[in-house]
Amino acid sequence: MEVGDPVILHPLATCGLCRACRFGDDVHCENSTFPGINVDGGYAEYMKTTARSIVKLDPKLKPADVVALADAGLTAHHVASKAAKFLRPGDNCLAKQIGADHTVQATDDGSFVKEVLELTNGQGAEAVIDFVAEGGSTSTGVKMLRRAGNHYVVGYGENINIPTIDIISAEINFIGNLVGSYNDLVELMTLAAQGKVKLHTTQYKLEDFQKAIDDLSSGKVRGRAILIP
Question: Which positions fall inside the Alcohol dehydrogenase-like C-terminal domain (predicted)?
Answer without folding.
Answer: 94-193
